[in-house]
Amino acid sequence: MEMGINGKRVLIIGIGNGIGKSIAIAYANERAIVTAVSRDEQGLRKLVLEMGGESKGHSYMATDLMIDGNPTKTAKSLIERHKKFDIVVHNIGHHLGIREPLAPVKEWQLVWKLNVGISIEMNEILIPPMIEQKWGRVIHLSSISARILRGSPQYCTSKAYLNAYVTTVGRYLADKGIVMTSIMPGAVEFGGGYWDEIKKQNPEKYHGFLKEHQAIGRMGTPEEIASFAVFMGSIHSSFAPATNIPVDGGSM
Amino acid sequence: MEMGINGKRVLIIGIGNGIGKSIAIAYANERAIVTAVSRDEQGLRKLVLEMGGESKGHSYMATDLMIDGNPTKTAKSLIERHKKFDIVVHNIGHHLGIREPLAPVKEWQLVWKLNVGISIEMNEILIPPMIEQKWGRVIHLSSISARILRGSPQYCTSKAYLNAYVTTVGRYLADKGIVMTSIMPGAVEFGGGYWDEIKKQNPEKYHGFLKEHQAIGRMGTPEEIASFAVFMGSIHSSFAPATNIPVDGGSM
Amino acid sequence: MEMGINGKRVLIIGIGNGIGKSIAIAYANERAIVTAVSRDEQGLRKLVLEMGGESKGHSYMATDLMIDGNPTKTAKSLIERHKKFDIVVHNIGHHLGIREPLAPVKEWQLVWKLNVGISIEMNEILIPPMIEQKWGRVIHLSSISARILRGSPQYCTSKAYLNAYVTTVGRYLADKGIVMTSIMPGAVEFGGGYWDEIKKQNPEKYHGFLKEHQAIGRMGTPEEIASFAVFMGSIHSSFAPATNIPVDGGSM
Amino acid sequence: MEMGINGKRVLIIGIGNGIGKSIAIAYANERAIVTAVSRDEQGLRKLVLEMGGESKGHSYMATDLMIDGNPTKTAKSLIERHKKFDIVVHNIGHHLGIREPLAPVKEWQLVWKLNVGISIEMNEILIPPMIEQKWGRVIHLSSISARILRGSPQYCTSKAYLNAYVTTVGRYLADKGIVMTSIMPGAVEFGGGYWDEIKKQNPEKYHGFLKEHQAIGRMGTPEEIASFAVFMGSIHSSFAPATNIPVDGGSM
Question: How many Å apart are CA C176 and CA C181, to the nearest integer?
Fold first, then answer.
């Protein structure tokens, strides 16, 4: 199926985990031109090479978006350099080890900032050029935790906020040619990731989780999420603005 | 993006409206082998020709599935003839003009039968061969009415039932290699369809609806639904069992 | 808090389990006049005595509502005898031991009939006199299964249908002075009930369920559901039509 | 129905609008001892008089909780003075006139702070004494906007966050004797309130809203919300922890 994104400029924010990298590669495979952003310069360099190198137009920017003001500064500098992005994928998300239900409000704000605040701040800069060209795709990596609400309360609430952000702002953008969506992955495993660690250190927990909570009986792969991230960024998602799409192995 | 369904056998039940036809053609375009079922023999014959004819393996069966016993009989006869289907798309759905909130229970049952009962009855026959081969896709055309719950109560409740069916039965099938999902279209327009009629007869209602309730500000096209129906039937939906996917132009 | 239901006529359909009986008694305690319906004549007679006897106006009707035509017949005969009911509580619900995901459609219909069909059929007769007097309360005992969707698929889908019925029909009734709602209990324990049996026969399952799935760490009591059933039947629910209220010990 | 809160200490945070005041009075009517917090000292003084005065134990504290650090300081000072509260009602919420979908992140944070941040910060201080005494009720005034997601995006997302907060933290508290819930009002009218203004200045919008979006066909009253706030604070909510309760006139 033709995705219609050959030559489109794609910005992928957050490459630290297996999912971001898989999304970048999946877009490159469709001949989109990828710019990747993360803290890890070495990882970014390797990724660009893996996608075919800078000669294909791919590029990166290494920066820590949790530093105050950096999301705006980074977005502005990216727009200066590339004029506009047709597709933006927000892939930053983590619970930061914060999970105490009566934690200080500052910790709730920190997790919110990482999972939503950075995206909101960058969208303010990244979306207007999409509005101008009357075409755009903005894809947020949320989590099925936004609905299931198990695990770190600070993480779950931030993802629930993100879903509501996608619904409300996505509706506003819908008649401007821009499709804003979220993808809600269930438990996904990759080298060095959370579930990879659990499998090694606590196989009982790993298998107990699969049996109790993931109907498919296995972890997802980053590639299974990346397919959806490309499809929602393609011409085919044109009638699906403001939607939150579960890709979760049958969470229960 | 390679959908991985070249040569797969696809059964599409319900071709009467624009969406079913678009789905059939979209599958044929991916070189899947399509069997189409509906009441309208002439329409089926034309559709098969449009997909390239019987020489490509496409076929049809004309029958009225609302007749008691017909879903089972039809499914059995289809399995006899084709051994199994890799992908089944259930596209029968309508409110039948029934919308009185205090209507007799028989009318509630009738709408339920059309929108869910037929599918349940046929799945009993169609799914076991999928379980045997450890691969399958079952896609139900639900409606965003399942969530928004506006319009005919009998229709909305049936679609809500259908979504819950997909979640519960979809979980059961998830570890057997079968991905059961639903797609929830918003308002879609096609020649001779509901919104086509409204546009002609009551343009004020047509435009009022778009303004009030569909953020994208236009009706959807059958093709925009068909893309999702193919993607959910492809190899790429492997980690999305038991999900209900909105494709609704930003219903609100 | 004054419930404002002193002297109101209440019909409670389904007394077989602990919840129905508790609701009847809770209403009687607020000096409402109760009519109870179930299959178990002896149980009904005892219940009426427990509420203070027929001299207080309480009454019962023993009938099996699963017999075709009986819901209509029973509702008509009740309206003939009592003219109207101000408050109706539908408390019939069970999975009937049916839980096979690929079960014949007849079994899906049977569970639907018990959990929703009977109520729909009786409401056709019971609600018009409420509309006439511009005041009424209709309370359906649903289940948190309508949202969690774990357990018998036939039961879960029927309860999801019931919730959607309450939303759609509840909206229609809202401006007519009638408040239709559902209550969604989580796991509740009472002598002879499901969890009472499990506790005796499979204590490991009982405690495992509590630990995994009910945040409160204990089963609910029928009285904890009955309080909500009275509150939603009172004058205080006037602004809560068409709502589905969870009372579920924190299902997760 | 006996609410079982005679003599209980109730803290109500946010009295500025009609709902907070009605809740305070409803609790006082059940002979609970009320402490009210808001910015408006004069309003607080009048309220205490209306509830029977300080001789009945009622008290107030005037403070602006949007000032950094004030929620913690206020909560600590209240606990110092009153030792503990059995019931806390959080009634602060507003969109602050912020509604631009691509607004700066600071504006999103501001609305979040008002609608959720203050409550989270105060709960850190107010809940531990409840845990100690193994009994407590924490009631958050959310909004049906948390589900409907129409109106100010910053407001809707904050209320969606609040609902998820109540679910996650409410589950944690459930087995400690504490019932944390939210109430989600629909459109409510009171002198000087939002809809009161609209009715005067834009009656067409007022009536259009009622017709399109509120099935009951009228605005709610503060008393209709207050009844639920008392019921959820009573002994009768013991099996309803972590729930979000709509009281919305049939939003659609």
Answer: 14
Is it the case that residue D16 has pLDDT exceeding 80?
Answer: no
User: Are the Cβ atoms of C149 and A212 closer than 8 angstroms?
Assistant: no
Count of CB atoms situated within 10 Å of the CB of C132 = 11
- What percent of chain A is modeled with pLDDT above 90? 98
**Residue B214 to residues A242, B222, D186: CA-CA distances in angstroms?**
11, 16, 22
Where is mean pLDDT largest: A189-193, A194-198, D169-173?
D169-173
Q: How far is C193 from chain B (nearest CA, A)?
A: 24
| Alpha-carbon gap, residue B22 to B227, rounded angstroms | 9
Contacts of residue A191, defined as CB under 8 A and 6 or more positions apart, other chains included, come to A18
Q: Is the confidence metric ipTM above 0.95 for this complex?
A: yes
Q: How many CB atoms lie within 10 A of CB B187?
A: 23
How would residue B198 be classed by pLDDT, with cut points 50, 70 and 90? very high
Is C114 within 8 Å of C38 (Cβ atoms)?
no
D96, D153 in Cβ contact below 8 A? Answer: no
CA distance D187 to D213: 10
Beta strands in B74-173 (DSSP E): 87-90, 136-141
pLDDT at residue D42, rounded to an integer: 96
* Residue D184: CB atoms within 10 Å: 25
The closest of B20, B19, B25, B32 to B234, measured between CA atoms, is: B32
Q: Which regions of chain C are under pLDDT 50? A: none
The single-letter code of the amino acid at B137 is R
CB-based contact C252 A212, cutoff 8 Å: no
> Are C149 and A252 an interchain contact pair (Cβ–Cβ within 8 Å)?
yes
Average pLDDT, chain B: 97
Against chain A, the chains showing at least 3 CB pairs within 8 Å are: B, C, D
How many Å apart are CA A85 and CA A95, to the nearest integer?
Answer: 28
Using alpha carbons only, give the angle A170, A34, A60 rounded to the nearest 5 degrees: 110
Q: Within 13 A of C73's CA, how many CA atoms are on the CB side?
A: 10
Find the helix or strand (DSSP H, E) in which C138 lies.
strand C136-141
Question: Which DSSP state fits B218?
Answer: S
* Nearest-CB residue to B240 (from A236, A242, A246): A246
Torsion of CA A10, A12, A17, A18, to 10 degrees: -10
And the tokens for C112? 């639907």
pLDDT tens by residue, C40-72: 999 999 999 999 999 999 999 999 999 999 999
Instruction: Give pLDDT tens digits for A222-241.
Output: 999 999 999 999 999 999 99
Q: How far D70 CA lies from chain A's nearest CA (Å)?
A: 12
In DSSP notation, C68-132 reads TTHHHHHHHHHHHHHS--SEEEE-----TT---TT--HHHHHHHHIIIIIHHHHHHHHHHHHHHH
pLDDT at D224 over 80: yes
E strands within D14-135?
Answer: 33-38, 59-62, 87-90
Give the number of other CB atoms < 10 A from CB of residue B38.
24
Q: How far is CA B251 from CA A36, A141, B172, C129, D212, in A?
A: 33, 21, 30, 36, 15
